[in-house]
From TrEMBL:
This is MFS transporter. It comes from Streptomyces vinaceusdrappus. The keyword Cell membrane applies. The chain crosses the membrane at residues 20-40, 60-77, 89-111, 117-136, 148-168, 174-196, 208-227, 239-257, 278-301, 313-335, 342-359, 371-390, 455-480. It is a multi-pass membrane protein.
Length: 500
């Protein structure tokens, strides 16, 4: 049955004439999900003052979202496969808008943390259905390259766009509009989804893997919570070690359970594919470095250099432009002629090089000569990497597995973001504290020493991020062996479901 439908969907003569308008709707929803991971970053100082958040708790405004998002994405992907992608897409949009309204009206830190977690839950339903709809809508290799170029550009630049939008809203309205802005976007996307998107019915006979959800999400929460607690408690604290151990054990049991579950949350044949596994790992490592950069540069530009929220957002604009150019003008054109790793490896080398340049920043660095070149290199590197990751990871997947495969790509992205934010923030703050303690010999220089110590912590963490980017390039070079796609090759089309 699936073979016949796949063949029909791939037939050029039956391509939906409104598919590019459908891409606009999908892209709008994806942009909303991605930029929400960072749009509150610039608003965070204002929200912290308004709601009386502590310095230790403020990171949960970001982490509550990425953690719920990353932890539940596999479930969201499987739900999309079971009940239909269009239906879950619309449900995700409506729920995301409602959670955004709840967060915008928050009167306590706990209310905001809860709203951000709820946003993550609905994003976990929305994102895999969006990518899955894209995968099943564009089957022609040439069109697929263009569509994934646009999607990859949004995935890479959405976080940077979040800074710009967040800066404007925070400065000219207030931080609450960083959440309220999702409501009109979601309304437009829902109307567009009903008018333009098509989907086959889901596989309602299958069951959801509830033990898999508990084990997988529990393992991820334990790991990220462990990283976040390492800063105030120390890496050798019993609670931190227990969280890391619990995370590893839960994820190991999750993998074991997936080999025995009647309807596994993550069918292991999806990650046994060498190219797909390489793409997932490359994505996770790349985003660990990228989210760390966003966090540090936001505080560096605002706190150290004294930029306004809007000026901070605009400072990220060249990076956004570089991501879009790297993804749509370079990767999308070259992927038809070269293997994906020929783009991913240079991309990670460029991004790592940009990070190394940033390690030289000081308390009075000049933006144009010392910060801008690094951001452009980072943007080009991310653009070169993200587009082939999305395209390669979702190519050749059975229709009934497209949702969970799309979810796994997004999971690697969000887990990377959660770990990156917690790990690199911990490294930066603990290094800063040690440096300030050892250098604070003259009380009259306290303010200058604190500023220098904060920047020192950032540069140490950025060195670590640069190394993680290099590791991502190594993984891509060794694991992603797919060749350049050709017209009509099976690798570009969904394949029938395996018998086993």
């Amino acid at each position: 049955m699936s073979v016949t439908r796949t063949g029909e969907s791939a037939a050029p003569g039956q391509a939906d004439p409104r598919r590019w308008w459908g891409l606009v709707v999908i892209a709008l929803a994806q942009l909303m999900v991605v930029l929400d991971a960072t749009i509150v970053n610039i608003a965070l100082p204002s929200a912290q003052r308004d709601l009386g958040m502590s310095d230790g708790n403020r990171q949960w405004v970001i982490t509550a979202y990425t953690l719920a998002f990353g932890g539940l994405l596999l479930l969201g992907g499987r739900v999309a496969d079971l009940v239909g992608r269009k239906r879950t897409f619309v449900i995700g949009l409506i729920g995301f808008a409602a959670a955004s309204a709840f967060g915008g009206a928050a009167t306590t830190p706990a209310m905001l943390f809860g709203a951000r977690a709820l946003q993550g839950v609905f994003a976990a339903v929305l994102a895999p259905s969006a990518l899955s709809l894209l995968t099943t809508t564009f089957t022609d290799p040439r069109e697929r390259g263009k569509a994934f170029g646009i999607y990859g550009a949004l995935a890479g630049s959405g976080a940077a766009v979040g800074f710009i939008v967040g800066g404007v809203l925070t400065e000219y309205l207030n931080w609450r509009w960083c959440l309220y802005v999702n409501i009109p976007i979601a309304v437009i996307a829902v109307i567009g989804a009903f008018a333009l998107l098509h989907d086959r019915p889901g596989h309602t006979g299958a069951r959801l893997d509830v033990p898999g959800v508990v084990l997988g999400c529990g393992g991820l929460v334990a790991l990220v919570y462990g990283f976040s607690e390492a800063q105030p408690r120390g890496w050798t604290d019993p609670l931190v070690l227990a969280l890391f151990a619990a995370g590893v054990v839960l994820l190991a049991v999750f993998v074991w359970w997936q080999t025995r579950a009647p309807s596994p949350l993550l069918p292991l044949h999806i990650i046994r594919d060498r190219n797909r596994a390489g793409c997932f790992l490359t994505m996770m490592l790349a985003v660990i470095g990228m989210f760390g950069l966003f966090l540090f540069m936001t505080y560096y530009l605002q706190v150290i250099l004294g930029y306004s929220p809007v000026k901070t957002g605009l400072a990220f604009l060249p990076m956004t432009a570089a991501i879009v150019i790297g993804s749509t003008q370079i990767s999308a054109r070259l992927l038809r002629h070269v293997g994906p790793r020929m783009l991913m490896v240079p991309g990670m080398l460029l991004a790592s090089g940009g990070m190394v340049i940033l390690t030289q920043m000081t308390v009075d660095s000049a933006y144009a000569s010392e910060i801008l070149p690094a951001l452009i290199l980072m943007g080009l590197g991310m653009g070169l990497t993200f587009m082939p990751v999305f395209s390669t990871a979702t190519a050749g997947v059975a229709p009934q597995d497209s949702g969970v495969t799309s979810a796994t790509v997004n999971t690697s992205q969000q887990v990377g973001g959660s770990i990156g934010t917690a790990l690199l923030n911990t490294v930066a703050t603990s290094t800063s504290a040690s440096w300030i303690t050892s250098h604070l010999t003259d009380p009259t220089r306290r303010e200058q020493v604190v500023r220098e110590g904060i920047v020192h912590g950032y540069t140490v963490a950025i060195w670590l991020a640069a190394g993680i980017m290099l590791l991502a390039g190594l993984v891509a070079g060794l694991m992603v062996t797919a060749k350049a796609p050709k017209h009509g090759t099976p690798a570009d089309r969904p394949v029938p479901e395996p018998v086993a």
